[in-house]
Amino acid sequence: MQHETPTLYGVLAEFASADELVAACKRVKAAGYEKVEAYSPLPLHEVNHALGHTSKLSSLIFCGGLTGALTGFGMQTYISVFDYPMNIGGRPYFSWPSFIVITFEMTVLFSALTAVIGMIALNGLPQPYHPLFNSAAFERASRNRFFLCIEADDPRFDLAEAKKVLASTQPLLVEEVPH
Amino acid sequence: MTALNSDALRARIDGVQKLALGVGVLGAIGAGVGWSQDATEFFRSYLFSFLFWMAFPLGCLGLTLVHTLTGGNWGIAARRVLHAGMRTLPLTALFFIVVGVGLHQLYEWSHADVVAADPILQHKSKYLNTTEFHGFYGRAVFYFLFWIGYAYMLSARHDHYERTRDEKYAATTRNLAGIGTLLFVLTVTFAVTDWAMSLEPHWFSTIYGVMFIVGQGLSTLAFTIVMSAWLAKSAPYSAIMQAKRYHDLGKLMFAFTLLWGYVTLAQFLIIWSANLPEETPWYLHRGYTSWRTILVALLSLHFALPFLILLSRKVKQNPALVSKIALFILVMRFVDMSWIIIPAFHQEGFHFHWLYLATPAAMGGLWVAFFMQQLKGRLASAPADSYLERALEVAPSHGH
After folding, report:
1. What is the pLDDT of residues B166-209, one digit of tens each?
2. Which residues of A touch B269 (CB under 8 A)?
3. How far apart, in whole angstroms, are the C-alpha atoms of residue B125 and residue B119?
4. Is the pLDDT of residue A165 over 70?
5. Domain extents for chain A?
6. Any alpha helices (H) in chain B, and if so which ranges?
7. Is B237 within 8 Å of B231 (Cβ atoms)?
8. How far is residue B24's CA from residue B41's CA, in Å, rounded to a whole number?
């Protein structure tokens, strides 16, 4: 068994309400920190704004949908025109109006799959261990408390400074979280 | 909080109301001249214009019914506009009288000699007639009684709830809205069957009513976005219309754009697949003559372009951008209605008459003026609106 001295993951602050969290995000961001993450029991779009988080997911979903549309339309065109042409009611082989329903469904299917898989991948899931689990208070992040963490690998990170910034946001608690 | 209007807002509403009234009166004079010159084209333009403008009060009633049933924050800011809109239904009923007057110019089934020579119309005459109690006129009276009755009842019940905040009362309103939604879909389906589908009395389509209802929803959402963005240029409406509200309404407009494409394609696909001689003429007139240009314009500009633009969240949250798209959609709604109605009269190909613009301008001017009158009342009568209080008090971060 090896025991390493625990390294610091970051400094965590706990808040009672979403508004306090959003205000704290703005403050920490204004202080120049980049590696900051917020944790909340419910989705908060304002936090994304405050932390300047952007996601590539919507462009990924658009590409997924486009791929679905092209796959759906292309597949039907290939089957009906080249691979196995059949005379249906005397219509031309390339009867594109009848392809639209499947094209639409494939667009939805590919977008939805891209959304789910892309979301999980970009979130870094599955992740059985996270350093924040070392904080006893953090258990309430999925219930009724809001958290903000300045991570130690932030280029500007300084323990005393980070604690001071977080303390200035009137949190319920500020604590160091080890790895 | 007190009333939702301010002096600045009232002055702006008054300004638009005067302008609309001016356009309405001038347009009415123009339409009157048109009537004396060519009564047939006048009635055609009138029916087309009526069906276009009818979409707004009916769409407002439909969306109010849905919002009463489901709730949701999207209706918070929209409610004042929706209620004012559905309270204009009595004017729509007045507008309808001229359609009744022009019946013989518009509907071939109303001519006894045509029916006598046409076995299909003889079979349909149990429904398509003007003499029986349940005939064309009787049904129209029933539709308007139901719509006006429900619109004013819902409006009054919402006002009462805002004063008393009686939750049991609100639950009854929700139940009434449930029955109302069902009857709304049925009555609008029957109404557009009577007023629009029977222009080509041999032809039939069961999704036709849904196509109109979806069109009405889209028109109304676009109108609500334009109105809300306009109202939000003054306090206190500016506090209610946060980016999130535009996002909600923009998402609904996006969904209805998609739905419009869906039902429009669904009707075509079924008729095209079956390829039956009694069904295809509707599309032969609209897609295989010079009307085809309008059809291509509809698919690319009514559907594809707004669809692609509204995919973006940034656009939906930007009041200036989303209201521009909404205005564009309103123009396309007008084009769509012209493509549905006018080919019934001009099956040979594209046709334009100056009355096709003058009559809608006249009717639109009068309707907007009356809408603004109703809106002033709605904005003034906001004594204690719990929904709006919440919108103003609660920070946007609290989500649902």
Report:
1. 889 989 999 999 999 999 999 999 999 999 999 999 999 999 99
2. 97-98, 100-101
3. 10
4. yes
5. 8-54+129-178, 57-122
6. 7-37, 39-70, 74-86, 89-101, 103-106, 112-116, 119-124, 136-164, 167-195, 208-231, 237-240, 243-274, 281-287, 292-297, 305-310, 313-317, 319-341, 355-380, 386-393
7. yes
8. 19
Taking CB atoms and an 8 Å cutoff, what residues of chain B touch A97?
265, 268-269, 272
Nearest to A97 among B244, B268, B395 (CB): B268
In which element (H, E) is residue A164 found? helix A159-167
Report d(CA B31, CA B361) in Å as an integer: 9
Q: Do B269 and A101 touch (CB under 8 A)?
A: yes
Average pLDDT score, chain A? 86
In chain A, DSSP finds a helix count (H) and a strand count (E) of: 5, 4
- The closest of B45, B204, B199 to B107, measured between CA atoms, is B199
Q: Which residues of B touch A (CB under 8 A)?
A: 244, 265, 268-269, 272-273, 275, 311, 313, 395-399
- How distant, in Å, are the alpha carbons of B19, B262, B268, B308 from that of A100? 45, 10, 12, 17
Q: What is the pLDDT of residues A98-145, one digit of tens each?
A: 999 999 999 999 999 999 999 999 988 888 888 888 887 888 888 888
pLDDT at B94 over 60: yes
Round the CA-based radius of gyration of chain A to a whole number and report it.
25
pTM of the model: 0.87
Residue B42's pLDDT band (boundaries 50, 70, 90)? very high
Q: Burial code of A6-32, b = ≥16 C-beta within 10 A, e = fewer?
A: eebbbbbbbbeebbbbbbbbbbbeebe
Count A/B contacts: CB-CB distance under 8 Å. Answer: 30
**CA–CA gap between residue B370 and residue B379 (Å, rounded):** 14
Q: Give B2-26 pLDDT, tens digit per residue.
A: 567 778 888 999 999 999 999 999 9
Token readout for B96 is 């309808």
Q: Quote the CA–CA distance of B52 and B165 in Å, as a whole number.
A: 37
Helix or strand (DSSP H, E) at A116: helix A100-123
Rg (CA), chain B: 21
Question: Residue type for B360, please?
Answer: P
Minimum-distance CB partner of B311 among A42, A44, A62 = A62
* Closest residue in chain B to residue A20, using alpha carbons only: B397
Question: Given an 8 Å threshold on Cβ–Cβ distance, is B398 in contact with A46?
Answer: no
Q: Looking at CA atoms only, how far is residue B209 from chain A in angstroms?
A: 21
What does the pLDDT read at residue B283? 95
Q: Among all chains, which residue has been given the structure tokens 């003054």? A: B234
Place of tokens 């976005």: B225
A44 close to B (CB below 8 A): yes
In this prediction, residue B339 has a pLDDT band, given cuts at 50, 70 and 90, of very high
Q: Find the CB nearest A22 among B268, B269, B397.
A: B397
Using alpha carbons only, give the angle B238, B5, B331 rounded to the nearest 5 degrees.
65
Q: Answer whether A46 sits within 8 Å of B396, measured CB to CB.
A: yes
